[in-house]
Design brief:
homodimer, Arc Repressor Mutant, subunit A, SH3 type barrels, 6-stranded antiparallel β-sheet, two-stranded antiparallel ribbon, 8 helices, binds manganese (II) ion, DNA-binding
DNA sequence: AAATTTATTTAGACAAATCTAAATAAATTT
DNA sequence: AAATTTATTTAGATTTGTCTAAATAAATTT
């Protein structure tokens, strides 16, 4: 099934708002999220209902059908992978990527996203730490730790960054730390809380507690 | 000035068709190129005329104004850089990229394309050999020759291909001829107009006049 | 030169996505 | 419980981009 840009935005929005709460998604929540009028939301929701993508109960709210959810997850996957691309490859700061990925998510090509996924090293989650659905639409929750909490000898993959600032992203770039990099904890220095690590079993560096507190690791 | 997707497609189309011929671009040529009805073309051309992006003379045809040309070149730059990305980074074949780049060219972000340009190593031309306008919209033309016109002993770099049919691209792939390959003319055969060449000082092959007529060389 | 064919424009319609203003339902306050 | 406020829907309008069918202009053939 192919959707228009607007339909895709609505489907993804419903999905994301549904994740945050149990109940049906309200018209105003949608209007707020998408910066459109409540009237427009009602309009589109009714269209999506007629297409079997959502279940809509007047004055109650909306929820995704299985088909709608499947579509929403595909769009979210595209959105998140493009975010990884923008941060990891083009060195954008966090604040700038949302608007661009919001456009890129609509690019329609069967093979493009899977190639992008591979090119990016099959990242586990977006720069914001949101888990990226796999090509089958499955969302696999791996446990995650702060790099701070890894013990000596342990290793894992950099999967998200908690700090937004350009300064931090630049620091990471300079130290060859990127999403998908393999980090091994060599030694934890008691005195100042810093950690000796290797990146991709190659570069050995020491990073401070402030750094390890802002890096999320999966196995 | 910001344009809609459709406007951008029209502007780029007029630019590309204008490059191939001296005279005004006709309605049918546009309709053919964009796979839309002649009536739709006339409609949109009139809108673009009212916005000062094209000069349109009824029944005669259309040409870009300076403002229109500036916009068209920006879109073309985006289109070509995304093509490089798709081939160079995501390993798409030349035949698959057109449709995707046709979508990606509409992504709107001031900094995105310049970062992409840098990420790709500031390529001189697209996979099809079309020169990529720089960030200022300047198109710097290096001199190029048909491979046919190189004399014996001369060598140069494959920088463009005049025929982008799948058949020709497949032929080139099979013979290890690619953009950036170094070709040296070993001998020009008078009898049938064919040429003996080496590719990257490695493979020695004979190619026909029809082939050399479709390969452009820079030094 | 007239007839015919081809190219182009105009007219009228339509779908998609949005808006504002008015109507109505639901929730909250008094 | 009634009044008021808030949320939601409906009605009507607008913009964008497209189409088909009919009208007209330009080019070509007879
Ligand atoms: Mn985001
Ligand atoms: Mn979007
Ligand atoms: Mn192309
Ligand atoms: Mn396009």
């Amino acid at each position: 099934m192919k959707h228009t840009h607007a339909e895709e935005n609505y489907l993804k929005a419903i999905y994301m708002l549904s994740e945050k709460q149990e109940s049906l998604v309200s018209t105003t929540a949608m209007a707020d999220f998408l910066h459109t009028s409540a009237a427009s939301i009602t309009d589109m929701i009714q269209k999506l209902h007629n297409k079997g993508l959502v279940i809509y109960r007047k004055y109650q709210g909306v929820t995704l059908t299985d088909r709608g959810k499947e579509s929403a997850i595909k769009i979210l996957r595209k959105y998140l992978l493009w975010e990884v691309f923008l941060v990891d490859k083009l060195k954008f700061g966090w604040s700038e990527i949302h608007e661009i990925a919001e456009q890129l998510e609509h690019i329609d090509c069967d093979t493009l996203i899977d190639r992008l996924d591979h090119f990016l090293g099959n990242p586990y989650c977006s720069p914001h730490g949101i888990v990226i659905p796999n090509a089958d639409g499955k969302i696999i929750d791996k446990p995650r730790w702060l790099l701070t909490d890894l013990s000596e000898g342990a290793s894992g993959i950099v999967s998200a960054i908690k700090d937004d600032s350009v300064a931090f992203l630049q620091y990471l770039g300079k130290r060859n730390i990127y999403l998908g990099a393999k980090i091994t904890v060599i030694e934890k220095i008691q005195f100042d809380g810093s950690t000796d690590i290797t990146i991709d079993n190659q570069y050995k560096i020491n990073i401070s507690r402030k750094i390890t507190d802002n890096i999320l690791i999966t196995l």
